[in-house]
Amino acid sequence: MSEKLWQGRFSEKTASVVEAFTSSIQVDQRLYAFDIQGSIAHCKTLANASIITETEASDIIQGLEAIKQEIEAGRFQFDDSLEDIHMHIESRLVEIAGPVGRKLHTARSRNDQIALDVRMYLRVATGDIVRKLYRLQHVLVALAKKHIATILPGYTHMQRAQPILLAHHLMAYFEMFARDMARLEGCLQRINVMPLGCAALAGTTYPIDRSYTAELLGFEKISANSVDAVSDRDFVLEFLSCAGICMIHFSRLSEELIIWSTAEFGFIELPDSFATGSSIMPQKKNPDVPELVRGKTGAVIGNLMALLTMMKSLPLSYNRDMQEDKAPLFDTVDTLAACIGIYTDMLPEIKFKEATMLQAASRGFLDATDMADYLVARGLAFREAHHLVGEAVSFALANKKELYQLTLEQLQSFSALIRQDIFSFLETRQMVERRTSAGGTAGKNVRLAIAAAEKQLARKKDYLPDFSN
Known about the structure:
CATH architecture of the largest domain: Up-down Bundle
Number of helices: 19
CATH class of the largest domain: Mainly Alpha
Strand content: under 5%
């Protein structure tokens, strides 16, 4: 298997250190099934154009299927001297099928071949990630329904701001992941373009029907420009960008879970099955899963930066630098899929401490804006109301009380517009339920949002992308 398919031009053997340095087989061997699938389609296209006979095509296809069985059974021998998965498969094909195996590479190049393999791999991976996000959205909706009455403090600048429903907070992540899905589905449209038949960069002189090949492989369209087709990695960059944004969402959620699980917050308790202990401190329960997801986000963002940097100054068309696109791509796919999966399993097992959350939402003057709104409703300009409530907050702080703990007389010292009904107006749940503007945290709004999300998921169920067959 060590004979190189391009060695005719060379008078010296490739140095072993060069073979090891230039080999990508340890990375790209995972593309074997797509390479074989693409080769079978190419073989049929050659036969369809009468470039090879039906008998030759049959022998080649049988050989390719035998190679796939060898790889999946663990019997296939990989060798750095053959550089990549394409040369491994073609070299073994010649051994199995004989000289006819050398005809398979007619009307194609490794340049369009690898572009095809990566696109086929990535459309399967992207479809799988979209489906995983879909299942995660179901988990978020179920959690939101469960906690439709749970109140917690909402934060800005990491300071308690206003009370909100936990369901509303969870549905914010539903919206984030919905955007991630939409981005990935848009990306999928640009992944699903077939480059095979563009050969090295200029197209081919053989009368192949590229649309026929695309139909065999389930591509929606063929690439329009042969130079662009073999040098384009925009679809990889776009996927990595979408993945990076999605991981940022997971990192933000991870950060909240880490903070909420501390003794200082005490809003949640992570399940024992998704936490670890300390090797020295027996009392510790560490949020390792959220911490690792938060940490892995940096690697995913780094993968995008690596590929952007690699591509930024490459002249058209194909350059060997582009061999380095697969390691960051595969790592990102694996990382994102793993993070979605573990969160889908972990979130339903988290215990939300409702009493602690409600108590926190009742402290820290989260009712200050509502007191200002109360005064505005009685004719005061908002800026004036804001100032008066600020003075009341300062007074309450000095007396170590909340606004609602002040007496009516004390409150009236800041404005004669205040009446006894101020106390019911400042009740935490009432503050939540009054926020009825579209997209607000009022219970009726959140119930509508959950119902809309359930309808959205039900409609989408039969239209999730799946290229695994």
